[in-house]
Hints:
InterPro entries: LolA/LolB/LppX, OM_lipoprot_carrier_LolA-like
Keywords: Lipoprotein, Signal
Protein name: Outer membrane lipoprotein-sorting protein
Shape: globular
Oligomer: single chain
Organism: Paraburkholderia susongensis
Number of strands: 12
Pfam family, one: LolA_3
Amino acid sequence: MGAMSRCAALVVGSSVMGAMAVMGAVMWPQAPAHAATANADANANAAAATTAATVRTTTATTATNPALVSQIAAHLAQAKGVRAQFTQTQTLAAMKRPLVSSGTLLFFRERGVIWQIDTPYKATYVITDAGVVQVNADGQRVSTQSAQGTRGVAQVSKMMRAMLGGDLSALYSQFDVAAEGSPAQWRMRLTPNQPQIAQSIKGLDMSGGGYLQSLRIMLANGDVTQLEFAKSTAVDEPTPAERSLFGAP
């Protein structure tokens, strides 16, 4: 790997953890219509009604169209995990040209995220409650950061995972949320309402339908990360190799 490639790898890698935390947790698919059972629909409707009522009574000043947000969260909370292809384009103030990377992503609510970059270099990042691990192309762990060392990533990841579990209180406690569209085709903007988060993140734009289709992360320093997703599929269990990456036996 040349000097420029190493530089690009460092820059891309430095933002991967934050993108994983935010993006991985909002990748949940809606249950396909042909696979949804009456019980699942009833549970989703009940969850949407409950969270909508909670939002109306406790967080009305921080949400636009809270009922839609609740419906989206209720749908997304139905699946265990998702696998998708991604293309990430980073526009950085310190770089003249955008940095583009691509690969595959696997997310499990109870385990974490595996982010595999295929181009412009090969690397794997694994984020769990224990921290973040980087794995090289030979399968060797080349760096490890504890949860304490990645506190910001863990905080955002925990908040987003709570949202996808139907608990919107964590989301509304840190972001003003505006949503439009329908559960079948929606757009959402998250704007930090806490100074600690606003120091780093200007806002998040998300759009999706059955799956998350795009995510735009705008940082306070002017850097922008755009993520596009394709070939998203629901996954019930990780492979043995993926379980090993997650640290499971």
